[in-house]
Each structure stands twice: as structure tokens, then as C-alpha cells.
Amino acid sequence: MNTYFITGISTDVGKTIASAILVEALNADYWKPIQAGDLEHSDTTKVQRLVSNKKSKFHASSFLLNTPMSPHAAAEIDGVSMSAKTIKALKTKKNLVIEGAGGILVPINDSETILDLIKPGYKVIVVSRHYLGSINHTLLTVNLLKSKGFEVALIFSGQAHPSTETIIEKMTQVPVIGRIDEEPYFDKNVVLEYAEKFKETL
Question: Which cofactors, if any, are listed as required (predicted)?
């Protein structure tokens, strides 16, 4: 069984939808260690609503922070002390999909970032979405992960931008699991369709 850590090149690039698709494709468990803000409509709740299979379990976040900010700032507002040591790696006998918060260098305290939550042996999937600067952000993210020895793959999301995606593929030389298009909506059926596509490349 494998653990897949889903990260993005920025915020709002499609990590949660990608996570739901992978959970469905792998009948995996899901865990979001840090949820900052929107607690009534958390990413865990969103993924749970998009997944059809009855095998996946949705594990409680280690930290539920009230303010939609960088985790270090949200934790400070809540008076919470947070570190990589206080976020115990989840144990399961199934495949596990872990969704990060923002990108890999988002701080969780004064000295640690989301990168410190990615354990050796995790497969890291980077979600990349086209915008001005996204090539730079994608290359920086992938190259840092590769330099740390992680196995990395990409998912592209949003409206297709062939020139951006082609140069990213050429310069990173990492596998591309697939792309998630700019759909009018996402529900269980749409997620199921993508899950079937992604099974072949996971």
C-alpha cells in the first residue's frame, strides 16, 4: 500500500478535487492534517461528498484552525502550538491520500513548513494550474521535492494550456498522471469518470 501526498504550486489550484479523484481511484483513505478556515465546509467534508465507494475512511484533521490563513498565522491566532512532531503520521492498512495546505513551503511554525510533513517513502503528487508564473512555481516545487529524494508526479488542472504543460513536462521529466479540466461542476459521477481515467497512470 502507498501513501500519496497531494500538494499544489499555490492555493486554489485544485488539490481537493485531485484528492477526491485519487481516493476514488484507489479506494484509499483520506487525511488532511491541517485545515485552516472554512471549518463548516472543510476539505475533508468536500472529499467525502465526492467519493462514491464505501471502503474509504476519512480521518479527522490533527489541527482545525479557525482563520483562513497560512497555518503558522492561523495557529498563532488560535493560540495553538503546532509542529511536525505534533502531527503524527496516520497508520492504515490501505492506500492513503494526504492533502497538504497550500504549497510545500507554506510555514506551519517559525522553522517548519508543509515539506516537513512529507515522510520518506511518500509519493508526492503536485497539482499545477496555469497562470502567469505557474511554470516557475511548478519547476521550483518539483525540483525541490526531487532534490529531497521524493518520487514526484504531476496533475494538471483547469483550462488546458499546451505550451505551459509541455515545457513543464520537458523540464521536470516526471510522470503526468493526467489533467482535470475546467468542469462546470464536480459531483460523484464526474469524480468517478476521472478516477477511471487516472487508474491507468497511478
Answer: Mg(2+)
Query: What is the tens place of the pLDDT at every residue in 158-178?
Result: 999 999 999 999 999 999 999
Residue 101 annotated as lining a ligand binding site: yes
- 3-198 has which CATH code? 3.40.50.300
16 is known to lie in a ligand binding site = yes
The residues that bridge with 65 in the sheet, in sequence order, are 36
| Averaged pLDDT, 14-41 | 96
Length of the chain: 202
Q: Is 55 a catalytic residue?
A: no
C-alpha closest to that of 136 among 177, 111, 160, 103? 103
Q: Is 99 annotated as a binding residue?
A: yes
Tell me which of 32, 85, 148, 199 is the catalytic residue. 32
Domain boundaries, the chain: 3-198
Give me the DSSP letters along 35-74: EES-GGG-HHHHHHHH---SS--EEPPSEEESSSS-HHHH
pTM over 0.85: yes
pLDDT in tens, 71-88: 999 999 999 999 999 998
